[in-house]
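Question (not urgent): is this output format expected?
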Amino acid sequence: MPLKVDATDRKLLLGAACVFTLLIVGTAWLGGSAGQSIDTPSSYSTASGGAKAAYLLLADAGYKEERWEKPLIELPQTAGNTLILAEPSEAPTREEGEHLNAFVSAGGRLIAMGIFAGTFLPENHSVPDILGGVTWKKASAVSPSAITRAAPEIILAPEASWISFSSAYPLYREGDHVVVAKYRYGRGEILWCAASTMLTNAGLKEPGNMEFLLASLGEKQNKILWDEYIHGYRQSLALSVAHSPAKWIALQLVLLGLAVVATFSRRSGPIFRPASDVRLSPLEFVHTLGGLYEHAGSASVAVDVCHQRFRYWLTRRLGVAGNISAEELSIVVHDRWAIVDEHFIAILRRCESARYDPYLSGAEALHLVQELNAFSVQFKLFRDAREVNT
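Got this back:
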């Protein structure tokens, strides 16, 4: 069965598809160019903030290295391995932290770099300093070690600082802030850096940074593990896509498809007249009006409406002016129908005063309305339904 789409709907659908396609293409193009400058020190990235140059440099220098794309809980618990943890974007889980501590205690070396890298350490004394990482600064060595002998000065954009009075061994300072520190943990060693500038493609060429990187890795026989798991890389393509921005593009495509299907099925399905409630029922009107008065707390208004309606029909029946007083109205009723009822004039006076009583209770208002209704029946004011509805 051929698909029938109205010409106007077809134009609207084609226009929306074109706009969506342009957005996808523009996002991919601009996102690709922006992605080259994003500061993610991944060994896969060739951007200025990437670390592919350092990875290739170490490979050419004869270091044994590997990209680690597994969770931290699968780290090998053997001595002589060095894990580079550069700019993690989130804190580890409790289980990951325990396995990482066991990795270092077994004789491993951990190089943690970045503002959140301290959350991975068993002893964390780092303090974030976001504004400090805006510009690159020169840090000078403050303690003798193999690293500081190789690189007396380094260039970095410090995003944090290490508390000076902690048990860690300070290596470099920028002003009054410790930006590189190390300490022993079990049989292993932890090296904390306030930024990963020293191993990035742009920062590696700065004076002292390359020497710092090579000295911090130790002997060439040590195996170097570049943690790419924290940057979203996984061993399988499906897992990598699930942790990349591509999943949001797929989600948008799914939502667009569902919107198109829902819109077409809604417009092309059978037409049913919606069931509507009859709003002309007198009883429904009474309930609605009563609920309105109850919600507003205006019992006096309800009494006033009933009283004015009662006076209108009574004076019309008697043929007198509608603005006569309650006493005069009582006299006319006595003369016409020979009815003497002191309760009648009392009710009329109470209804006249009730209209000015904002604190009139609901029970009293109901009593007055019932009394007026009883007098209406007694005087036969509403002789047929037409007059009642008028």
